[in-house]
Design goal:
heterodimer; A: 296 residues; mainly alpha; MetI-like fold; B: 618 residues; alpha/beta; Rossmann fold; 3 domains; 8-stranded mixed beta sheet; 6-stranded mixed beta sheet; 21 helices; globular
């Protein structure tokens, strides 16, 4: 071997990886703004219960009082302090969608990976099921489930997870199909790697960006969806403090005391916008990275 | 032809001392330095260089085309007494298409998939030549006939996707020439096409451009092709022209060490000249106070650390080197003494076959149509142990499918593949570990061959974990580092991700990954086709060396007959999935018997047989 003909390539000849940090994510306007908003809301939800002047269901004063020094946002038709209920009512607004989306994500990722990688009959069956599921309107499906099993957090979370899973499965499946024929996957097959290794070690890390963006986007939808269900009386049940329930209950007083509706409605909106901005920033963040990888 | 071109007075387009830079993120990166080229009417100037040498930037700058952030730092582009690099977009629009035509590599960017061929032609002819529709249509049909598109009248009403890649590129050529431009800029116009199609398109380009008296610039990485089809040749390196002159002379007797090294890296079917890579990696930026090639040059001295001027020589030659008088004469056709010499004296048929392919067919079902697609058609071949078998053919010939069937990635529809006399299971998953270890495969695409989310070490450790229980866990890192040195990479790259490596470096890692399994048979699927010619030469050199050292059996798939000659002892030529010819590589290339082999050989550009190539082979 003529070793002298070829020079060894050393690390000095190779450009250093460009650092992709949280800071560069926050530098994207949507990222910084979205994360800022979300942190503010999380602070409100976490600290809220401790600084609330009253407990959420305590009848503390006359009903239907306007904003005053004692009750900043007034009281509702039962005489409960609205500010206290707002401070307590955020946890379920964030937590329930998070649970629903996580559950849908786990199932969808597994099914999507297997269908996308194996193809053939498995894929045909999965696609068929997805298409049928997507043809059923989301609200209708959840209405039927709630009618059958009664309302409440657990039922709503399960129903929303079931309704969202096909959408996510479809995204994961097509992302998997894009990765599966690539040569590093072929190399793994030629080595005789197990199905688990190929799906979770070779493919999953490469669909990570798609996965993250999809989680963020679905989370936004789920927040609005579950808040709407609570508003309709199908989700979180009164007397629980929940922003969606509050909008529904204080709706009758809209003309007398609008803050009782506006503040929780606004908070739901801001939460959805914050998560949506983060999803948008994630798309840009990973879009850049994908671009960079192709440019090399 | 028509009268417009005879009235031409000054069709010359020239870059004079042109320096161009890109401004991005507050910094300025210079990409062209002091480039002077002139395109003469009726002549073709070839511009050769590796990726990143600035050749495409020069081609676009000559058109006055500027991307955002691009700045002319010095010099100018002169056309017909005007400065193109300072011209307004309004002035440029009058010149583009009408007087300066551009033919890019990819027809997907030059033909609009939503418009018929007729619309493409009529638009340009009406705008630039003032023809009415009827005259424009007549002219279009005439040009389609000239680029040998069958049934030109019918073709006008078709859409681009209804034509093959080669036909699309010919249509794009006709489109560019139909407005009778004075200058034609060709940027790798045939790179994506099959060899036979490439030769056809190149013949047309040369004939038509010369007939029309066009001043053409032909940009390509393929030095042999440029030396065959061009009048003049300019070699670019790191944004500078390092050598320039009459094409045949530059190719036959290069003066600049880089030109000589580049020619030495080009695989050829004509001789047994071994390939040589160029050590090091190309310089990413324009040199300042030094010779651009100094880092990789065998003839470098301390005196090279200065700004090197382009030295004019006899016969319109020029070279950018200060040691021109002292350097030895480069003779690219000479044998090199330091080369790897593999003893191939033993006749292949006397050796035991390690791998036997018997009547193998691969058929794919085509969804939507009843007719299945036959990718591999009844192929039988035996691979002697320790030898290299080459499989050559055009795209769609089934060569990669055959290789993947051997690797257990594609299930054959018929026939058997045996390893040391025992039939192999049809998928890798069904084969015992020992057989999966023994047969390893390396893929074509350096961007996809390594998992982008695994570090180099993670990719290389895997085969050890699966196939080498003899190496203890704590010794794996040492074994991997040793392999890195064998494929000429420094072990400190182990914790990098593939995106930080160049294409050639990634291919080396991929070869290392295959070799760590200690295979008996190494399957190589077009492993160098995506690489620059100097990198290709180093990879082939590495493979040939490793094959000899480890007594490996290699099956090498390639579309390039020059590469075939460089690596393979025995070869088979595939067409439409079937073997057309088989035999020892040198004999196959010297005395082909099958008409298809002859056609393939005639399509390989060879500067020594330029006239033959341009007239359409034998």
């Amino acid at each position: 071997m003529s070793a002298d003909v070829l020079k060894n390539v050393t690390a000095a000849d190779v450009p250093l990886p460009r650092q992709r940090s949280l800071r560069s994510f926050l530098a994207i306007p949507q990222g910084g703004f979205g994360v800022g908003l979300l942190l503010l809301l999380l602070a409100l939800v976490v600290v809220g219960p401790f600084i609330a002047p009253d407990s959420p269901n305590e009848i503390s004063d006359q009903p239907i009082l306007g904003p005053s020094a004692q009750h900043w946002l007034g009281t509702d038709s039962y005489g409960r302090d609205i500010l206290s209920r707002v401070l307590h009512g955020g946890a379920s607004v964030i937590l329930l969608p998070l649970l629903a989306v996580s559950a849908a994500m786990v199932v969808a990722t597994l099914v999507g990976l297997v269908a996308g990688y194996l193809g053939g009959k498995v894929d045909a069956v999965v696609t068929w099921v997805i298409n049928i599921a997507l043809a059923i309107p989301s609200y209708l499906a959840v209405l039927v489930v709630v009618a059958a099993f009664g309302g409440g957090g657990a039922v709503v979370v399960t129903a929303v997870a079931v309704v969202y899973a096909p959408y996510i499965t479809r995204v994961i499946r097509s992302a998997t199909q894009a990765i599966a024929p690539r040569e590093f996957v072929l190399a793994a097959r030629a080595r005789g790697e197990s199905l688990g290794w190929i799906l979770f070690r070779e493919i999953t890390p490469n669909i990570g960006p798609t996965l993250l963006v999809e989680i963020a986007l679905r989370f936004t939808y789920a927040i609005m969806f579950i808040a709407s269900l609570s508003f309709l009386g199908l989700g979180v049940q009164p007397p629980s403090a929940n922003w969606g329930v509050m909008v529904a209950q204080n709706r009758a007083l809209l003309l007398v005391s609008p803050v009782g509706v506006l503040v929780p409605a606004l908070l739901i909106g801001v939460l959805a916008i914050a998560v949506n901005l983060i999803a948008d920033a994630l798309t840009q963040f990973f879009g850049d990275r994908i671009h960079e990888r192709l440019m090399v | 032809m028509t009268t417009t071109q005879t009235a031409r007075t000054d069709g010359d387009l020239a870059a004079e001392g042109l320096s161009v830079g890109y401004r991005a993120r507050g910094g300025l990166t210079q990409v062209l330095a002091d480039v002077t080229v002139t395109l003469h009417s009726g002549q073709i100037l070839g511009l050769a260089g590796e990726s990143g040498s600035g050749k495409s930037t020069l081609a676009l700058s000559l058109l006055g085309y500027r991307v955002s952030g691009q700045e002319t730092l010095a010099g100018r582009v002169a056309f017909d007494g005007r400065d193109l690099d300072g011209a307004s977009i309004k002035e440029l629009r009058k010149v583009w298409g009408a007087r300066l035509a551009y033919l890019p590599q990819d027809t997907a960017t030059s033909l609009n998939p939503a418009l018929t061929i007729r619309r493409h032609f009529v638009e340009g002819l009406r705008r630039h030549r003032g023809l009415d529709t009827a005259a424009a249509v007549a002219r279009s049909a005439e040009w389609l006939a000239r680029v040998e598109i069958p049934e030109p009248e019918t073709a006008l009403h078709k859409y681009p996707h209804q034509f093959s890649g080669g036909q699309q590129q010919r249509i794009a050529l006709a489109l560019a020439l139909s407005v009778e431009p004075e200058v034609l800029i060709l940027d790798e116009p045939t790179t994506g096409l099959d060899v036979v199609t490439q030769a056809h398109v190149n013949r047309l380009i040369v004939t038509l451009a010369r007939d029309a008296g066009i001043a053409a610039l032909y940009v390509s990485h393929n030095l042999a092709l440029l030396a065959t089809v061009c009048d003049e040749l300019a070699i670019m390196y790191a944004g500078q022209i390092v050598e320039q002159g009459i094409a045949a002379q530059v190719y036959a007797a290069p003066r600049h060490p880089y030109t000589a090294a580049l020619i030495g890296a080009v695989p050829t079917i004509a001789s047994d000249r071994p390939l040589h890579g160029i050590p090091g990696i190309p310089r990413p930026s324009v040199p300042v106070h030094t010779c651009g090639f100094a880092q990789r040059c065998t003839f470098r001295t301390d005196a090279c650390e200065t700004d090197i001027p382009l030295v004019a020589l006899a016969d319109d030659r020029a070279a950018r080197c200060i040691r021109l008088d002292e350097l030895p004469t480069f003779d690219p056709s000479a044998e090199h003494t330091t080369a790897v010499v593999v003893d191939r004296a033993t006749a292949a048929k006397d050796l035991d076959a390690i791998l036997t392919v018997d009547n193998v067919g691969v058929v794919f079902a085509r969804p939507g149509s009843g007719e299945p697609f036959v990718a591999v058609d009844d192929v039988s071949v035996r691979v002697p142990a320790g030898r290299a078998l080459g499989i050559a053919g055009e795209s769609g010939s089934g060569k990669s499918t055959l290789l993947r069937a051997i690797a257990g990635l594609v299930r054959p529809s018929s026939g058997t593949i045996s390893y040391r006399g025992a039939a192999l299971a049809s998928t890798a998953g069904e084969r015992p570990v020992a057989l999966r270890r023994a047969i390893q495969i390396v893929f074509q695409n350096p961007d996809a061959t390594l998992n982008p989310r695994h570090t180099v070490y993670q990719s290389l450790e895997r085969p050890l974990k699966l196939f080498r229980p003899d190496i203890a866990k704590r010794d794996r890192r040492d074994a991997v580092a040793a392999m890195m040195r064998q494929v000429r990479l420094a072990p400190d790259l182990l914790d990098r991700y593939p995106r930080n490596l160049s294409g050639g470096q990634r291919q080396r890692v991929a070869i290392g990954r295959a070799l760590l399994a200690e295979p008996e048979v190494l399957l190589c699927d077009e492993v160098t086709s995506a690489l620059d010619v100097s990198v290709q030469a180093s990879i082939l050199e590495l493979l040939v060396g490793l094959q000899a050292e480890r007594e490996l059996t290699v099956v090498f798939v390639t579309h390039d007959l020059g590469v075939l000659r460089a690596v393979a002892d025995e070869a088979i030529i595939l067409q439409n999935g079937a073997i057309r010819e088989a035999g020892p590589t040198t004999r196959l290339l010297r005395e082909p018997t099958h008409p298809y082999t002859k056609e393939l050989i005639a399509a390989v550009p060879d500067p020594d047989r330029a006239a033959e190539f341009l007239s359409g082979g034998s």
